[in-house]
Structures are given as structure tokens and as C-alpha cells.
Design brief:
Helices cover about 35% and strands about 25% of the residues. It is an alpha/beta fold. The chain has two domains: about 140 residues, 3-Layer(aba) Sandwich (Rossmann fold); about 180 residues, Dihydrodipicolinate Reductase, domain 2 (2-Layer Sandwich). The chain starts with 5 loop residues before the first strand and ends in a 12-residue tail after the last helix.
Length: about 375
């Protein structure tokens, strides 16, 4: 265990902030929550009192000015992520940013540029990478125990009704950056990318099927990877039977996980190909016990900081995922295949995820 205790703060005390506070409490003394901030001073004070936090602030600016901090957890609505992350980096503080990290690829590149000038780092909260099942899968795949990856499916089929979208910042390009592709499916397909590696090409569709929002409420993509694997990706907020699923078909086994908002070991299954039954015992011998929640993610962050490294999910990792999102929208709205690297700085899809405009836009 590290002998250092990292001084942490939370900016934004909405619902997701509770998971962050719990992760800090679960850190075994490796981190300490010393302050919180929220534009609603009353809510900040109530959150601080409930979680035993000594100080609360009505602005991020005052918190960063008055506190000596190592890390800040950014739990605000998406439109404020980039400016707050940059403010943290300019103060020399590591920013741990909830998903989606920014509204656009251009905004994320601005954060990367700020990180290059800072003693702090930026990392995105994509906690599904850190459950024991995902760690086990990556280890076996990287060791060649599963053979070549051939095919994958990635499904985020959730249900969000009109009341959910009554919150003003939800369902708009200007404040949320996109629909389920940005704010919901990102967890699943980020893990897909973490397992299969660099993607090469995307062909996609997006639609507004049922919700009175500016963004899509459904998207689908066909993806090819540099290693030759192919995958389908589905993101939805109109699916009454909710599920989050990933399936990886390798030469020697199929590895699957089905859950909703977080998995445990019990949610994973392995089906060996004939003649490769030994894969089952290799899977059973891997790390176990860790769920895909914020506690495991924060432990990985603190491990990296102890070693003087950028915490996961690093800016480079996140940029690959953000570029994938931009390419998905670009393909969906232009009807063309989009290759990795094709969304350059001058592309409208770098500046905003809706790029040239969603086909259902009327104004």
C-alpha cells in the first residue's frame, strides 16, 4: 500500500458524485476527500455534511484557489468538463473526468494541450476497464491464449423516458454532446476498444426513433480493427428490456459478459472451442473478485500516481474512444465509411459531434 494520502475534491455533487465519494472511502486511506464544490451552495453543503467532508464551496474557482489538492473528480454536466479540466490542469491538479470527457474531439484536444503544459494529468472515468473480468480477458488475449480475435458484438440497450430528458442539459448537442453514443454506450464500446485495440474503419447509422430530443436515441455501427477483427456496436435509450452486453469470439473461445450498469465475475461466461477446453481453466486461474465500479478504477488511478505515471484512462486512450465517436457520427450523417485519422482538426465532426448536422434537424 502507498504511504501517501492523496488530497481529493469533488466538483459537482449530483448523483454520480456519491459513487466517487464511496470510492474514496473504499481506498483504505490512500485518498481523502477534503472539499467539494457545486454551483448550488446548499447542495454542496448538504453533500459535504452527509459524506463527512470538511469544506464546501459554491464555485470551482474558489475551491481550486483555496485548497491544496492532488486530484479533482469532475462530476458536473458534460458541457463544463473541458473548462473545468483545463482549470485543474492550470492549477497543477490531476483531473479525473466523468464520461463523456468533453463535447467534441476539438475540446478534448484542447485538454490534451493543457495537460502538456501541466504537472497534473487528465484521466477519464471509464470504470468497466478495471473489473477483474476485463483484466483477465485482456491478459489472456495479450498472451495469445485465446487465439486471434475474429468477431465481437457490443450492445448498450437501455431505456430512458421523456421525464429523464426533462433535465435541461440532456438530449442536446450543445450541452451533452450527443445521445446514447456519447453518454450511455461509451462504457461498453470503450471496453471493446480496450480489448481489441486500434480500430480502422466505421460504417454507421443513427436515428431519432422515439424521444423528443435534438440528438439520436439509437445508433449502430460496423467496425473493423487493425488486427482484422470485426464488430457490431449498438447504442439505444429506447429498449424496454435493458441490457449491456459484450461478446468476443476468438479462435479458441467465446468470452461474454452481460450486465446492466456494472459487472461482477458472475456476469462473465467462457465457451471454449472444441479441442481448446483448457481455456476454461486458464480463465478460472486469473484475477477474481473485482467488480467494474468506481472503487477498482480509483485504485488503478492511485497505483499509477504512486508510480509517477499518468493515471488511467489516459488522454491517449480516451482520444481513441472520442475519435471513434466522432467517426460514428460522421459516418451516420454523411453515409460514408470513415477511417481512423480521417477526422482532422478542420473537420466539422471534430468541432461538434453533429458535424454537418443531424438529418432530422429542421432549424
Amino acid at each position: 500500500m502507498s504511504e501517501r494520502t492523496y488530497r481529493a475534491a469533488i466538483i459537482g455533487t449530483g448523483a454520480i458524485a456519491n459513487a466517487h465519494a464511496q470510492a474514496v472511502r473504499n481506498s483504505g486511506g490512500r485518498a481523502s476527500l477534503v472539499a467539494v464544490a457545486d454551483v448550488d451552495a446548499g447542495r454542496a453543503g448538504e453533500f459535504a455534511a452527509t459524506n463527512g467532508v470538511p469544506r464546501s464551496y459554491a464555485s470551482a474557482e474558489k475551491l481550486l484557489r483555496e485548497e491544496e489538492l492532488d486530484v479533482v473528480h469532475l462530476c458536473t454536466p458534460p458541457q463544463s468538463h473541458a473548462p473545468l479540466a483545463i482549470a485543474c490542469l492550470e492549477a497543477g491538479v490531476t483531473a479525473l473526468v466523468e464520461k463523456p470527457p468533453t463535447l467534441s474531439l476539438a475540446e478534448f484536444d484542447a485538454v490534451i494541450e493543457a495537460e502538456s503544459r501541466s504537472t497534473g494529468h487528465v484521466a477519464t472515468v471509464l470504470q468497466h476497464r478495471f473489473g477483474a473480468g476485463a483484466v483477465r480477458l485482456r491478459r489472456l488475449a495479450e498472451a495469445g491464449e485465446l487465439g486471434r480475435p475474429l468477431l465481437a458484438t457490443c450492445l448498450t440497450q437501455w431505456y430512458r423516458d421523456e421525464d429523464y430528458y426533462a433535465v435541461p442539459w440532456r438530449g442536446t448537442w450543445a450541452s451533452e454532446g450527443g445521445g446514447p453514443t456519447m453518454g450511455h454506450g461509451i462504457h461498453q464500446f470503450d471496453l471493446l476498444l480496450a480489448v481489441l485495440g486500434p480500430w480502422r474503419e466505421v460504417t454507421a447509422v443513427a436515428a431519432r426513433q422515439a424521444r423528443s430530443v435534438d440528438t439520436e436515441d439509437v445508433s449502430m455501427a460496423l467496425v473493423t480493427f487493425e488486427n482484422g477483427a470485426v464488430a457490431t456496436v449498438v447504442n439505444s435509450v429506447v429498449s424496454p428490456r435493458q441490457t449491456s452486453e459484450l461478446r468476443f469470439d476468438y479462435e479458441r473461445a467465446t468470452v461474454e459478459v452481460e450486465h446492466l450498469y456494472g459487472y461482477t465475475d458472475d456476469d462473465w461466461t467462457v465457451t471454449p472451442a472444441p479441442g481448446h477446453e483448457g481455456v476454461t481453466s486458464l480463465w478460472a486461474a486469473g484475477p477474481s473478485g473485482g467488480s467494474s465500479g468506481h472503487t477498482g478504477w480509483l485504485a488503478a488511478v492511485l497505483d499509477a500516481l504512486d508510480q509517477g505515471q499518468a493515471p488511467p484512462v489516459t488522454a491517449a486512450d480516451t482520444r481513441r474512444t472520442m475519435e471513434f465517436i466522432a467517426a460514428l457520427y460522421a459516418s451516420a450523417f454523411t453515409g460514408e465509411r470513415v477511417r481512423s485519422g480521417q477526422i482532422t482538426a478542420d473537420s466539422p465532426f471534430a468541432q461538434s459531434m453533429d458535424g454537418t448536422g443531424a438529418p432530422w434537424r429542421t432549424t
